[in-house]
Amino acid sequence: MKTKLTKDPVEAAEVINRGGIAAFPTETVYGLGAGVFDESAIGKIFKAKGRPQDNPLIVHIARVEDIEKLAVDVPVYARELIAEHFPGPLTVVVKKRADVPMSVTAGLDSIGIRMPSGELAREFLWMCEMPVAAPSANLSGRPSPTTWQAVLEDLDGRVDCILQGDPTDVGIESTVVDCTGDVPVILRLGALNSEELGLKIVRGDDEVAGAVKSPGLRHRHYSPSARVVLVDDLKVLAGGVNVAFIGLGTPGVEMGYAVVCSNEQEYAHKVFEFFRECDRRGIETIYCETVWEGGIGAALMDRLKRAAE
Ligand code: TXA
Ligand code: MG
What we know:
Elements: E1 4-6, H1 9-17, E2 22-24, E3 31-35, H2 39-49, E4 58-60, E5 71-72, H3 76-85, E6 90-96, H4 102-105, E7 110-114, H5 119-127, E8 132-133, H6 148-155, E9 161-163, E10 175-178, E11 185-188, H7 194-197, H8 203-213, E12 227-231, E13 240-247, E14 255-260, H9 264-280, E15 285-289, H10 297-308
Parallel strand pairs: 1-9, 2-9, 4-7, 6-10, 12-15, 13-14, 13-15
Antiparallel strand pairs: 2-3, 3-8, 4-8, 5-6, 6-7, 10-11
The structure holds threonylcarbamoyladenylate (TXA) and magnesium ion.
């Protein structure tokens, strides 16, 4: 198929409304969307990405009331999280309505819902006739795309349309919180951390719960082709033309490619595009400096560890 590039959110929404699949920017990363009740379009997403069928999709809404089209028995604490953080980089997992297709939730009886805050995302979702199921718009296993060019690199000829927005703001994905039990549990660390969410959760516990309950975390993720090595001490770095570095400090040796960030925010914002650029340059070894696991640093370290696996 020919992939249409557009800057017009109405044109991208029309693609969804006619049963196609379209990539669009959010404040976290670009998503690849299809109408949530359109089973044939949902099938096209899994095919275009090469995504395992057991990995559920997050459903994106334009209005808080749209939750009622997707979910039942939403607990009071989830309503509070939603009131506080929608629109924003939070995904709540709640009990799904029976009429949401099982292909969206990969057979689970729960559904992940989020309302992105990006302006273009909101205009696009507003024009779609139904909520939009959307995973990140990368080929399965590759780093999530933070620019429309990165989407094109992975999905040219595999999707109907790419809505061309600015590079995404945050650079890593939303925080996924399970709201199906008595208390909220973080399944995937993300743009909002547990302090911002007001959740008192022991890190070790979320990782255990997350590994079991969030199927996406079982799969290989966020990986460039190069070998990724995490380093605490920049003095151990070996230089070379096929070696790259990203971190907060300045490496003392010559590298093929180096990105020095001024804080964790900037590091998170740049890391996925850095991985892609390393692949374009044929880099063989990537050194990533570890960061303090507070604030966005917790989610950043989660992505770095997965990339290094
Ligand atoms: O920021 C984001 O969340 C981006 C943008 C596009 O919204 N989306 C994204 O989607 O990262 P994806 O498909 O790459 O990751 C979705 C994650 C997976 O780890 C998946 O397992 C989890 O959310 N998830 C979705 N629905 C779930 C459910 N019902 N129960 C548990 N985990 C769920
Ligand atoms: Mg993804």
